[in-house]
C-alpha cells in the first residue's frame, strides 16, 4: 500500500470498560469506551472533543452517558461573549489588589493619573483581558514596584521537580491522597505526557501555540499554581488545575478559569472547554457559572445554550439526549427542546442496561449514545479500508491474513476491532486515523 500516515493520527484500540466512579463511589459506574493515542494532530483531537471525547494522559475515552451513574457532559464557554459575574469580578479585583499593593496604587494614581473619561470607562466596563494582566510584574509603571512579583507563563509540558512538588502538595492536601500513593511516574503520565502534537501557527491575531502546555503561576518566584492545557485550533481545553495550600485563600480555581477564558479570547482560540460537567457533582457546578455556557448533545453532537430550564431538567433526570425539536423560530436557528417537564427518573429505571456487564457485547450493540449501530456501520468492504500499521509495515485492514475469516461480532478479531473503531469515531474521522499495533 502506497500511502503516508504522516498527517494522520495514530491510535491503539482498547475496550469498553466499567470502573469505580470517582464522584459517587459506585464500584463500576464509570463506563466508557477507550483507546490509547500514540500520536494525534491537534485538528483531529479538536473534532474528538466536539464528539464528547476527552483524554487522560495518552488515554482517549468517550463516556457512555446513558449507562454511567454520573453522566459527564461536555460543555464550553464562548470567550468572546463571556461577561464575568459580580462574584468573579470581585475575586479578580481582590487578588489584583493583594498582588499590586496599596502603596503602588496610591503612587500610580499620583504619578500616572487616569483622565476623567478613562476613570469612567474603567468603572463602567470590566475589560477582562486588561484586569487579568494588571497584577503581573510586566505591568509595573516606571520605577514603581508591586508588593508581590506575579508572573504567569505558558511553558512546555515537561516534568520538573518544581512542578511535581506542587502536584504532591495539591494531591495530599486538597484531595487527601496518601503520600505513599503519589509518585513522579503518575504525575508524568497524567499531566506531562500527551499524544497531541505541538506546533506554532499564526491565526492573524498572534503567533498561536498549539499542543499541550503548562500554564504556571509564580508569586515572588515560587510556583504556586499550574494549569495543564490543550491549546487547540478552536479552543483552550482545561485538563487539570492545581494550587499550593498556601494560596487557597485566593480561590485560584476561579481565577484560573477567568485567565484561561482570557487566553482563549486574546490569542484567538475562541472557546474554553472546562472538561466534563456532572450535574449531581456539587464541586462541578462552578463550571456552569461562566456564561454563556453551551452543552453538547450526546446523540446529535450539537452545542446548545445551557439554560436554567435545562439545568433544572438535569435535576429531574440524569440522562438527556438533548435532541433539538424540529420546530424552527421564524427568525433563527433551532431553539426548542422537547417538553422536559414530563420526564422522570422512571425513564432511567426502565432503561435496559444489561449490556453493561456483558464484556462480549460489541460496542455497536450497546445502545451507547452517539455510537453507530450495526445497521449504521459501513459495508465490510469499506471497513477494510482502515489503515493499519503492523510489524513496521502499513496496509489496509482487508489485506491482513485474518480479515476474510473474521467477523465483526468477534471483539478480538481484526474485523471486530475495526468495526468498534468505526462505531466509536464515525466514518469521517476514521479517514484521519490509523490503527497502530506496533
UniProtKB/TrEMBL annotation:
Entry keyword Acyltransferase: yes
Keywords: Acyltransferase, Transferase
Sequence ranges assigned to domain N-end aminoacyl transferase N-terminal in this UniProt record: 20-90
EC number: 2.3.2.8
Pfam family, one: ATE_N
Protein family membership: Belongs to the R-transferase family.
GO cellular component, one term: cytoplasm
InterPro entries, alphabetized: Acyl_CoA_acyltransferase, N-end_Aminoacyl_Trfase, N-end_Aminoacyl_Trfase_C, N-end_Aminoacyl_Trfase_N
SUPFAM superfamilies the UniProt entry points to: Acyl-CoA N-acyltransferases (Nat) (SSF55729)
GO molecular function: arginyl-tRNA--protein transferase activity
The N-end rule aminoacyl transferase C-terminal domain, residue ranges: 162-296
Protein name: arginyltransferase
Amino acid at each position: 500500500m502506497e500511502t503516508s500516515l504522516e498527517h494522520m493520527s495514530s491510535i491503539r484500540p482498547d475496550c469498553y470498560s466499567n470502573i469505580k466512579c470517582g464522584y459517587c463511589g459506585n464500584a463500576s459506574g464509570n463506563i466508557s469506551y477507550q483507546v490509547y493515542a500514540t500520536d494525534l494532530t491537534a485538528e483531529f483531537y479538536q473534532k474528538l472533543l466536539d464528539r464528547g471525547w476527552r483524554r487522560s494522559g495518552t488515554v482517549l475515552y468517550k463516556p457512555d452517558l446513558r449507562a454511567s451513574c454520573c453522566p459527564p457532559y461536555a460543555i464550553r464557554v464562548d470567550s468572546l461573549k463571556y461577561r464575568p459575574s459580580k462574584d468573579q469580578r470581585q475575586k479578580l479585583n481582590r487578588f489584583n489588589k493583594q498582588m499590586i499593593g496599596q502603596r503602588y496604587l496610591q503612587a500610580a494614581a499620583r504619578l500616572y493619573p487616569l483622565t476623567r473619561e478613562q476613570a469612567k470607562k474603567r468603572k463602567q466596563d470590566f475589560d477582562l483581558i486588561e484586569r487579568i494582566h494588571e497584577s503581573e510584574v510586566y505591568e509595573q509603571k516606571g520605577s514603581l514596584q508591586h508588593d508581590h512579583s506575579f508572573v504567569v507563563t505558558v511553558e512546555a509540558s515537561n516534568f520538573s521537580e518544581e512542578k511535581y512538588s506542587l502536584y504532591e502538595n495539591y494531591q495530599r492536601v486538597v484531595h487527601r491522597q496518601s503520600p505513599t500513593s503519589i509518585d513522579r511516574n503518575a504525575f508524568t503520565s497524567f499531566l506531562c505526557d500527551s499524544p497531541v502534537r505541538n506546533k506554532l501557527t499564526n491565526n492573524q491575531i498572534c503567533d498561536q501555540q498549539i499542543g499541550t502546555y503548562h500554564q504556571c503561576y509564580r508569586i515572588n518566584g515560587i510556583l504556586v499554581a499550574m494549569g495543564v492545557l490543550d491549546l487547540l485550533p478552536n479552543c483552550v481545553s482545561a485538563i487539570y488545575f492545581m494550587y499550593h495550600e498556601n494560596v487557597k485563600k485566593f480561590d485560584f480555581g476561579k481565577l484560573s478559569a477567568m485567565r484561561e477564558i482570557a487566553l482563549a479570547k486574546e490569542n484567538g482560540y475562541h472557546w474554553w472547554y472546562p472538561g466534563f460537567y456532572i450535574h449531581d457533582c456539587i464541586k462541578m457546578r462552578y463550571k456552569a457559572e461562566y456564561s454563556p455556557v453551551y452543552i453538547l448533545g450526546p446523540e446529535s453532537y450539537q452545542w446548545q445554550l445551557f439554560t436554567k430550564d435545562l439545568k433544572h431538567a438535569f435535576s429531574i433526570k440524569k440522562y438527556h439526549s438533548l435532541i433539538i425539536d424540529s420546530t424552527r423560530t421564524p427568525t433563527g436557528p433551532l431553539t426548542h427542546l422537547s417538553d422536559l417537564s414530563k420526564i422522570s427518573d422512571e425513564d432511567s429505571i426502565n432503561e435496559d442496561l444489561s449490556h453493561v456487564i456483558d464484556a462480549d457485547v460489541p460496542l455497536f450493540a450497546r445502545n451507547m449514545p452517539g455510537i453507530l449501530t450495526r445497521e449504521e456501520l459501513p459495508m465490510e468492504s469499506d471497513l477494510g479500508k482502515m489503515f493499519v500499521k503492523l510489524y513496521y509495515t502499513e496496509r489496509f485492514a482487508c489485506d491482513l491474513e485474518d480479515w476474510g475469516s473474521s467477523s465483526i461480532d468477534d471483539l478480538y478479531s481484526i474485523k471486530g476491532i475495526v468495526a468498534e473503531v468505526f462505531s466509536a469515531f464515525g466514518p469521517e474521522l476514521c479517514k484521519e486515523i490509523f490503527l497502530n499495533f506496533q
